[in-house]
Amino acid sequence: FGLGRSDPPDLTGIGFNIEGRYGLGGGTELGFRTAVRSDEGPATGADVYARPFDRETFGTGGDTFANPELRLRQLVTSALALEARVYVPFDGPFGFMLAAPLQLSGGNLRFDSGVYVPIVFADPATLSWVSIPAYLWFHAGGAWHVGLLTGARLSNPGGDWSIPLGVGLDHTLSQAADLVMWFLFPDLTQDSAAKQFGAGVGLRIRI
Question: Is the whole-model pTM more than 0.85?
Answer without folding.
Answer: yes
